[in-house]
Amino acid sequence: MNADTPLHPESPAGSGADSTGLAEPLLAGDRRALARAITLIESTRADHRAQADALLARLLPHAGRSVRVGITGVPGVGKSTFIEAFGLHVIGEGHKVAVLAIDPSSQRTGGSILGDKTRMEQLSRDPAAFIRPSPAGSTLGGVARRTREAMLLCEAAGFDVIVVETVGVGQSETAVADMVDLFLLLLLPAGGDELQGLKKGIVELADLVVVNKADGDLVAQARHAVAEYGHALALLRPATPDWTVPVLSCSAITGTGVDGVWDTIGRFRDAQAASGRLDGRRADQARAWMWNEIRESLLAAFTSDPAVRAQLGGAESAVTAGTQTPAMAARSLLARFRHEE
């Protein structure tokens, strides 16, 4: 069994700090303990949630020291291949890399492909790497709800570079940008028409654009694409003040240009840290995280409330039949939730 294989959390062992016994081995870099801890925080059971909160409180002082990178791109751009090449290069520079890969979940069954380890075979075998695929579920942006907490666990386990791979390109990818230090957009070596075809919101979130597959017959095309994308991005406001979004090219297959991507990430983070914007960005993200948790928790409490559940089906039927406005139905259900009716 691979050391990263998720295990079921231990049964509740009473209240108090870290009743799971996972904190100490995790802090020592035990990847099995890390995998079990992530399984624990992803659990929806109330007793597991209490254990997860205690574990996170114990580990929080040891987190926050990593470089957090979000990576997205169009289908077929080679995200997994790029992340493997990138991860191996960064490990070669003396770092430890954790990859949190968000897999697309089936909207009908909730099933998930979870195939990133098979696509990153070399990286997954490296003792300095940890790959954890998680199903996206229905959370905004295809980001598993507990990805932020998983990042903290990985940092506490000694991984100083965290990569969050997202499902793909879309307006809701703002959820990823709101949890990382740098947001990287991978593109194919096509012309400027492709950039125009992307949703403007996702392009405006990028701190770094990388044209992948710059190898073989595509080298010249990639070089032309870098220039095209550079001109197009010059017309947009950068996501980060006082930072001109670089457009680079690389080949994840040959490894050419991957070092330049890592060097650029280092320059970006150094500049942000020196200006104080890195701390400000993370503080803003923590605040947004809190409010997102409030929204998610309130919705879960609302839909599980017995009084609401008793009326929910009828309210939906009335709305779809046109006999009641959605606003009226929502107010009635909220009144039930507040026990005002």
UniProtKB/TrEMBL annotation:
A GO CC annotation recorded here is: cytoplasm
Q: Which family does it belong to?
A: Belongs to the SIMIBI class G3E GTPase family. ArgK/MeaB subfamily.
Q: Which InterPro entries match?
A: GTPase_ArgK, P-loop_NTPase
Q: List the Pfam families.
A: MeaB (PF03308)
Location of the region described as Disordered in the Swiss-Prot/TrEMBL record = 1-22
For this protein, the record's SUPFAM superfamilies field holds:
P-loop containing nucleoside triphosphate hydrolases
Which GO molecular function annotation, any one, does this entry have?
Answer: GTP binding
Superkingdom, according to UniProt? Answer: Bacteria
UniProt protein name: Methylmalonyl Co-A mutase-associated GTPase MeaB
